[in-house]
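Fold this complex.
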Amino acid sequence: MSRARVAGRGGSEELRRLEALQAPADLRGDRLIDAVGTYCPVPITRTAEALRRMAAGQVAELLADDRVVLLDMPAWCLSTGHEYLGFRQEGGEWRLFVRKK
Amino acid sequence: MSDSARRPVKAVGLMSGGLDSTLAARLLKEQGVEVIGLHFNTGFCTVDHRRAIGRKDEDPRRLRNPALQAGAEAQVEVRVLDVADEYIEMVKHPKHGYGAAANPCIDCRIFMLNKARDVMKEVGADVVFTGEVLGQRPMSQHRNALDMIEKETGLKGRLVRPLSARHLPPTLAEADGRIDRQRLLGIKGRSRKDQERLAEDFAIEEYPQPSGGCCFLADRNFGRKFHDLVREEDATGRKVTREEIMLLKVGRHFRLAGTVKAIVGRDEAENGFLDRFSPGRWRLHAADHLGPVTLVQGEPEQGHLETAAAVTARYCDGRTEPAVRVLVERRPAALGAPGEPEASLVLTVPPAGEDLLASLRVGA
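Structure:
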């Protein structure tokens, strides 16, 4: 099989940038989703469910303690087009912010 | 030209995050098809379980959701669907039977494709796609199985398998030229070489190795424990809960009576996992030694608790002592509420012998 190499790195680089993105200290969400004690993909499905009931431009704030959500949430945002605004760590928990597209 | 012929084709597909489904999505996207990937939370993913167990030395990058990563890199929308409750019911009595363990591969495909068909209709898509490769998996990917799955899901003419399309009859969208069949592939069989080359072309650097090892249902030891639990449900009529199925993923399991089981943690992480499920169950641990957390589910009699205590003693650091004191408690059923035990006693028992363990053990 011979194929031209297809550009595909753009997504990877953007993903790495988003994974490291820290949210501003004063950022607050319009709606809080408490997913502490649950594991991915539950924090993602709950965020998706919340966003469905929110208006475009509003910000969902997810509270989670599964550290893998720090990788999965930016990936999900990049895949779906919602804007990932970063995370803040609070002890063993994280707050992640997503603006609805 | 009709409206449907002018607008871009829209495809909804199954995306596990494995290489094949990722490539299938990329092949369609590359020719201008609008792609939505569906990723299912079935409750049986081994990676999701490793997250839940939360071993501290585990690299989080090895635990990330590969479908979301693939979707992000390809800029393909991935929707995550939690189907676990419904999926569990399907797995208990699959119409087409199991593989070597508790893996109902054909029914699983049909289940997921039915969901994809529903989303296809909901979003006005034209086709469903999968990363299936003809002849790759013995149970679900031989030609007869592919045909039968297509028929049972009502997707005849609407199910595109971009990696093997050239070996299969054209779908409606290929036949009318809206999907360019010449840009789909003719991969067949178990070799991975074509897919690996294609991954390089698409600059896909990270992808999980295909093995079937990412599903608990394909694990023979899990399968034995699963079938044991379903036999209990069939014999008693008591509906097995999602929690009980989740508990099959950890520990050593011992059936003490018809509906009474003991689950013994094998390490600190499993003990922590079991502790989360201790409300509403009997919880045992050695009073004077390091050792496992044991949960007893069902309604045990005193004799069952004594046996569970002996099993707990066998796996604690005092296993060579003539007798071990085991603390036995039952906490209220509200999850997350530690509360005071409803019942508490200390049993002094000799550690269980190998014969007793062998007679009670479920699975390996």
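Residues 1-8 of chain A have pLDDT under 50 and may be disordered.
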